[in-house]
Predict the structure.
Amino acid sequence: MSAPLHIAVLMGGWSSEREVSLMSGKGVADALESRGHRVTRIDMGHDVAGRLAAAKPDIVFNALHGTPGEDGSVQGMLDLMRLKYTHSGLATSVIAIDKQLTKLLLVPAGIPMPGGRIVKSETLYEGDPLPRPYVLKPVNEGSSVGVAIVTAEGNYGSPIGRDVAGPWSEFDELLAEPYIRGRELTTAVLGGQALGVTELKPKNGWYDFDAKYTDGLTEHVCPAQIPDDIAEACKRIALAAHRVLGCKGASRSDFRWDDERGIDGLFLLEVNTQPGMTPLSLVPEQARHLGMSYADLVQAIVDEALAEP
Ligand SMILES: Nc1ncnc2c1ncn2[C@@H]1O[C@H](COP(=O)(O)OP(=O)(O)O)[C@@H](O)[C@H]1O
Ligand SMILES: [Mg+2]
């Protein structure tokens, strides 16, 4: 067993994924305590720097999701404080939180992602930016927050009605992407290895916030029952994306796969640099399938961060 450390677990914060992060943080903190570490649990507020300075941990476990824990801000603060921390660093976080910036880096590296473009929300009231069906989403949210699927049936109106609720009333700009029909896949990467492929099967509708976090609303098929070449491609692409972006610790790449198009129907949607770490989350599930317990996984993430110069 590795030497006991004093580890600060950062969780909570004020993003739309606050509640998820509190669950990730609790899971991580409990696991670290079970391994004999001393843990300081910090529900992040604007006084976080002072609290970390007072706690003087050996290392920080970042269990935050969304802004500012996943967008480089917290990473920059920790760099300035000369505190070691888990998961990706500042530059990687800034890029990966932004779905459009991610594309600008990964598509030239040969990674298949849906086309599409940034649109001003105001212009959506005049007409469709892409042929229907298409997806609108904020560039830097998570957990499917603010994602709208605009279908040919004229949901939201045609063009989108000013009086209809949707991300266009909340965000000045949105990413518009062609809707990829088919199946929902995800692959975790840790320590230079792609762990596996999970298929997410929402019981009704699509993989929205409720489907992600309400018990029983989505079936996780791990490992996914898909052809070997698709599974291998998910792993290869997730590993390549992790490396090109310079991710550290665990990352998780989300895919859509149009199973009518074979390998040409596989598209990376995004890379999560602070993936969910509740004991029931996808990354721990893939690790477990490889024989790695939740506590082993948490310890491995800490070990990778400690090994950083
Ligand atoms: N281009 C797309 N085609 C089909 N479904 C999509 C597309 N983009 C997003 N989605 C759906 O929205 C979900 C969330 O999108 P994603 O890009 O992973 O952002 P986040 O998980 O950060 O909210 C996906 O898991 C998928 O179900
Ligand atoms: Mg996603």
